[in-house]
Every structure is written in C-alpha cells, then in structure tokens.
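We were asked to recover a plausible sequence for a given structure. The inputs and outputs are reproduced exactly as logged, with field labels preserved.

PROBLEM: sequence recovery
POSITIONS: 473
GIVEN STRUCTURE:
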C-alpha cells in the first residue's frame, strides 16, 4: 500500500492549494478528485475553475463587452453598426480559459510531484483513503495517510418540487452553457450566483425575472449599498421580485410554467428557461463519515475548530465543506494554514478580513462588518461615505454609479468595515483588506497618498469623511 504524509480529498481551490503547499513544505502528497470536465476527462480545479468563479467571470466579461458596444459606446462618440452576437464563440472562449487553468493546475502538480489519484475518495478506518474509479471500472486503490485533508466542497441546493434537467430547468452549471440567449429567463434566488448569472443573460438580451423568497435584498451586504444596488439592477432591466417564493415548475411545449407565491397570493410566470440559484450546500456524500466517526453538524458541514481540525486527530477539513463564506479564497487560505500547521508552523487564517465580491456591474465588494451587525453588537462607530459621481476618474470612465463607505470604531478609529459599490470594487477592496489586516485606523487610510485620478481616491475620500473632512464633496 502506498503511503503519503498528506492525502487531500477534493481538488478545488481549497484542496489543490493545500496539496501544493504541503508538497512545497517537503511532505509526500496525494490528492484524490472525482471531477469530470466538459470533455469527459478528469480535471483539477473543482467547482471554482470548472463551473464557478472562472467560467462565470469569463461570461460576465464577454457579456459586459456586448452590452457596452450596444448601450455605452454612443456617449463616447463611438458608433458601432451591425453588432451581432455569437454565443457559441463566447462559450468556447470561456471553455478555453477553463482548460488553460485546469491544465495549469495539473502542471503545478507535476512540478511539485503531487500524486493525482483520479476517482472517488472514501475515508476508511486506520487513516486510510480508498479511491474508486469514477467510471466504476478498474481497481479500487487504498492509500495510507499520516494526515488527511477533506476538501470536498459544495453542490447546488435544489427546490424539492423542481427537477433540474439541465435543459429547461438548470442549475448554475447549466446556466454557464446555454447555446443561445433565452428570450425569457427566470432566475430563482437573488443571491450572488443568481445576480451574476442573471446579469450575464440580461446583458445578452434575455428578459430576466428574478424571484427571491426573502423580503430584503442582499441581506449580508451593507443596507445602503444593497438599496442602491437594487435600484441600479432594476434600472438595468433585471426584473427583481422580493418576497416571491417559487413553489413549483412545470416544463411544457413552449417553456416552463413557474408558480410562485408573494404577499398578494399565488402567481404563474411563463419563461423559456429557469436557473435555480438558491444557494449551495456542503458536499459529504460517499465520504463514509459515519463509519469513521467524523462529526458532521446539523447543517451538513464537517465540524472543525478555528484551525480546521475535525474531531478526529490528523484529519482536517477546509473550504466550502466547513462553515464560513463559500468563497474560493477562503478555502485556499485554509488549505495553506492546514498544510503549514501539519508542518509545525503556527499559521492561522483571519476570518474577519475575508473580502466578499459580487461581480455584477457595477461590482459590490466588502470586508469586515456592516453597520447593522455593529448596531446589533452595540458597538459605537462612525462612518464616512463618498459617492462615485464626485470622482474625476469615475466621470472620465462614465462609471459614476455607486459609493464607498468606510466604517471605523468611534473610540479607537480602527477600521471595522469597508463597503464598495462601483466599477472595479473587486480590485479596490484589496486596499481595505490590507488596511484592516494591519489594524489601520480611518485616519491611517486618510493619510495615505492615492494616485490621481483613480477610483481608489474614493476610498481615500470615504476615509476622510469618517472625520467629516472629505475634500471633494
Ligand atoms: P470545490 O471547488 O467544490 O471542489 C471540491 C472538489 O472535490 C470537486 O472537484 C469535487 O468533484 C471533489 N470531490 C468531492 N467529493 C469527493 C470525493 N469523495 N472524492 C473525490 N473528489 C471529491 N467563489 C469566489 O470566491 N469567487 C467567485 O467569483 C465565485 N463565483 C462562483 C460562481 C459560481 C457559478 C459558483 C457555483 C460558485 C462560485 N464561487 C465563487 C464559489 C467557489 O466556487 C467555491 O467557494 C469554491 O469552489 C470552493 O472550493 P472547495 O475547494 O472547497 O470546493
Ligand atoms: P445565495 O445563498 O447567496 O446563493 O442565495 C440564494 C437565495 O435564494 C437566497 O436569497 C434565498 O432566499 C433564495 N431562495 C431560496 N429558496 C427560494 C425559493 N423557493 N424561491 C425564491 N428564492 C429562494
């Protein structure tokens, strides 16, 4: 039986990063993964590279280009005639980016001498992992591990009365592979994934109706920003219904009949396709958790402590399969931490400074606490805001929708949260993460020189506004 210092189960951004870091630290490492890519072959990268972060961003970028040519070039004095759309080319570009990156990870595995075991990984008693070929054919292999890292990720949640057929009723994976633009698209769930995928197909010309069960919009986001974002997304044409819970869907000859309920009663909605984007759940199927006594909590997450240790010594769990935001970079950092702790280092992850991004246009990004959360904690704070309509660079780019908000402790001035709605918010948030990681105060941020003209000046001005000394508003 082969023996490894570290065996990782799951090759997404949590697992493959854990494997690379383990190998860098000199540990013999194997990774088991069962993901089959679009071409029917085993691929690394998990949900993020194959059906998540990367393909969705590729389509968000392509669709934004198309939308710009049609609706935003005119004011720049650029006249574009006979603009047309080639969806298969757009999808093929996305697929190429995915395969470049998944092959890149395979290359990194070779370079770091990581053994890639292709198939379904199962925990066995005595720190063993069995690997069953995904096709069901071939020999089952069993390997011995000194340490096991579980990184089995998450899968889409479903609605019991809706059957995903990946044709008329699709999940997020299906919505990344439409071959033409649906005329009428229903999106169930106005969370991050629903808004991103709804935006893609809306920009490409679909009439998109988003049905969201909750009465409030983007509840984890700063309330002021969520309000502005809802107004802007509706202005862009996303027909967002809040307090609308989808009950059932029936596929007919001419599309899908959706039934949903809101405060006014039960309604029918006819659409061509439906994207079910009602969240994701931790994936522990077939892990053999019960037999090995691995503790899974009542929400389905593998229970871990702050260092990602499970209840079994030398077995760790990271990424979407454990509590915390289902974000790729959160899982990767947990992967680095676990590998380094196995190697005897004292690494930890600061879960308070994990940035969140919603890649709509404009983007929404934040780090730290919202005003609502601070009020709940009865913590006193001051906040400063700066609207992008007052930013020279935003005006030059014609991207004046949005704002930056900096929230700081009333007593110490330490930055407690930064919330951005605007062009490039995903990049701008990095400055706030660095500032918070170093326990910077709003004044520290206000004292730093920001290049002119840049969008980052809005972060500077919002920090100045915490002490009511913004210069350009
Ligand atoms: P996963 O990426 O889910 O990988 C788990 C891997 O383990 C898979 O390959 C799976 O096949 C394999 N596996 C599971 N069980 C077994 C087993 N028993 N044996 C062998 N293999 C197994 N996050 C962001 O940070 N930014 C974004 O922009 C973003 N966009 C997204 C867009 C969409 C449409 C979706 C669906 C998700 C998006 N996410 C984004 C979330 C992100 O994809 C996840 O947070 C991330 O992939 C989690 O990484 P992970 O390694 O924990 O799990
Ligand atoms: P997220 O978890 O951020 O991806 O968001 C998923 C969203 O789907 C949440 O805001 C849920 O309220 C919403 N949701 C869940 N079930 C339904 C349903 N049956 N109809 C409409 N929205 C739903």
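RECOVERED SEQUENCE:
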């Amino acid at each position: 039986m082969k023996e490894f210092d570290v065996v990782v189960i799951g090759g997404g951004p949590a697992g493959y990063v854990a494997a690379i870091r383990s190998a860098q630290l000199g540990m013999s490492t194997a990774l088991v993964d069962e993901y089959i890519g679009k071409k029917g072959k085993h691929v690394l990268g998990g949900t993020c590279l194959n059906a998540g972060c990367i393909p969705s961003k590729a389509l968000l970028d392509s669709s934004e280009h198309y939308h710009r040519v049609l609706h935003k070039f005119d004011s720049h004095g650029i006249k574009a005639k006979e603009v047309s759309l080639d969806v298969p080319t757009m999808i093929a570009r996305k697929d190429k980016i995915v395969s470049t990156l998944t092959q890149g990870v395979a290359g990194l595995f070779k370079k770091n001498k990581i053994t890639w075991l292709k198939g379904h990984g199962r925990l066995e008693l005595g720190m063993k992992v069995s690997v069953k070929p995904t096709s069901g054919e071939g020999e089952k292999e069993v390997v011995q591990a000194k340490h096991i890292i579980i990184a089995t990720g998450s899968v889409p949640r479903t609605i019991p009365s809706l059957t995903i057929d990946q044709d008329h009723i699709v999940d997020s994976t299906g919505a990344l592979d439409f071959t033409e633009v649906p005329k009428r698209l229903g999106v169930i769930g106005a969370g991050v994934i629903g808004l991103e995928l709804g935006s893609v197909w809306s920009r490409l010309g679909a009439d998109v109706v988003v049905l969201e069960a909750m009465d409030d919009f983007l509840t984890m986001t700063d309330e002021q920003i969520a309000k502005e974002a809802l107004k802007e997304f509706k202005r862009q044409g996303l027909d967002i219904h809040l307090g609308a819970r989808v009950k059932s869907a029936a596929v007919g000859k001419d599309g899908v009949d959706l039934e949903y309920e809101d405060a006014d009663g039960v309604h029918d909605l006819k659409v061509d396709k439906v994207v079910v984007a009602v969240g994701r759940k931790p994936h522990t199927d077939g892990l053999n958790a019960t037999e090995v006594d691995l503790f899974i909590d009542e929400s389905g997450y593998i229970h871990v402590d702050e260092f990602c240790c499970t209840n079994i010594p030398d077995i760790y769990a990271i990424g979407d399969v454990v509590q915390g935001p289902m974000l790729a970079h959160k899982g990767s950092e947990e992967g680095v931490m676990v590998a380094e702790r196995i190697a005897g280092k004292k690494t930890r992850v600061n879960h308070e400074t994990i940035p969140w991004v919603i890649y709509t246009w404009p983007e929404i990004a934040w780090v730290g606490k919202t005003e609502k959360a601070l009020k709940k904690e009865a913590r006193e704070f001051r906040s400063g805001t700066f609207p992008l309509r007052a930013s020279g660079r935003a005006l030059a780019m014609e991207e004046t929708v949005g704002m930056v908000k900096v929230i700081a402790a009333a007593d110490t001035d330490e930055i407690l949260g930064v919330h951005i709605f605007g062009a490039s918010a995903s990049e701008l948030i990095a400055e706030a993460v660095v500032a918070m990681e170093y326990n910077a105060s709003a004044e520290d941020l206000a004292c730093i020189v920001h290049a002119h003209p840049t969008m980052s000046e809005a972060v500077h001005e919002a920090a100045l506004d915490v002490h009511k000394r913004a210069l350009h508003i």
